[in-house]
Amino acid sequence: MQVTETNADGLKREFKVVVPAAQLEARTESRLAEIAREVKLPGFRPGKVPLKIVRQKYGASIMGEVLEAAVNEGTGSAIQDKGLKPAMQPKVEITSYAEGKDLEFTVALEVLPEITAMDFATLSLEREKAAAPEGEINDTLARIAERHEGSETVERAAAAGDVVVIDFVGKKDGEAFAGGTAEGYSLKLGSNTFIPGFEDQLVGKSAGDAVVVEVTFPEGYGNEDLAGKPATFDVTVHEVRATKAAEMDDELAKKVGMDSLDALKQAIKDELTRELDGIARTKLKRVLLDQLAANHDFQVPEGMVEQEFEAIWKQIEQDKEAGRLDPADADKDEETLKTEYRTLAERRVRLGLLLADVGQKNEVTVTQDDLNKALIEEARRFPGQEHLVFQYYKNNQEALNSLRAPIFEDKVIDFILELAKVTDKEVSVEDLRKDPDEAGEEKAEEAKPKKKATKKKAESAE
Hints:
With about 450 residues, the chain is α+β, with helices and mostly antiparallel strands.
């Protein structure tokens, strides 16, 4: 087997591989002999089938096996002998082959770049911090109390926020329709539980009142027979009940599984603190990635960039079709958008390669404990179906890898942050939650000349 390097341009490599006909024939004969010893054909004793008959029956499939093995071996030899690290699957093209002739093929690939990371100790980063405000803790308590509200019968007309106990019969063109009838239904006015306009027409009604409610079903209503159509509901009001939020006391806390009101407040504070810390970390990571991108400019494999761009552009096209396209992109022509998002794809690939290299060189690993924690968090998103989630990831290696990748990235980010100089800056909760692009736009309005804010999608590499 002869392997000749024909191109070494940047990260691109190309080889010509020639496998002599004699070598292919020898492998074919060896494989035929193996089969002849094992094959069973009518009229012949096991192991006594003539080689000529074996060749006639199995020759084509054996030649396919031999050619595949030769291509794999030649490709492996081209890569391993040069000590190359392919960025993606090599492209193999057979350029010449005929029975009894040499096999010739080319192997084209891109290799991973050599990366020299900056000294992370020279990085200077600012982390925004905000304490959980008492106001939000109290607001959350109020919402919990409202969800556990009680009600009592009142002798007056119904107002927004009251509960009315009603019977109703829905009709279209004067005929009752399926699913439009109920008795003793408790409806909170202002809850928007029913279609638009229904609840408003019950405000001001009292127990014993009968009213015909006139509505039009929304265009996108699930029942096509009713969508966009006018209808009436014959409604009888049996009772008006005023609602009252539950008292904020230990009893309320016990209703939600806490021992006391103080324990509930602490749980709310802890959850809010975790949320704010998460936002702070996300913004810090964004700043870190910006600095890493600014300090590393190594060449990246074009194939990886193109693959990343295609994934981004597919999402852009889906967003455009669904009317979800970023307003900042809506007025741009397709060529401009493609240029911008190809730049984003290159940034993502470069940062991804950098983080992978830093992690590998510094022996950052994802442990089974790390995966277990991620699995538990994922399962919590599907209450009552946790066992199905665990089973899915247990039987799906690709899905498991999708959990492993962000864990690895976060651990590498943590490694870099440990080396960098990070100072904390106390900010308001409002400023912490403010999107950096929005803040950039506000500053741009104040500054002359105006400076355009960096694209949100380009700010975050992952």
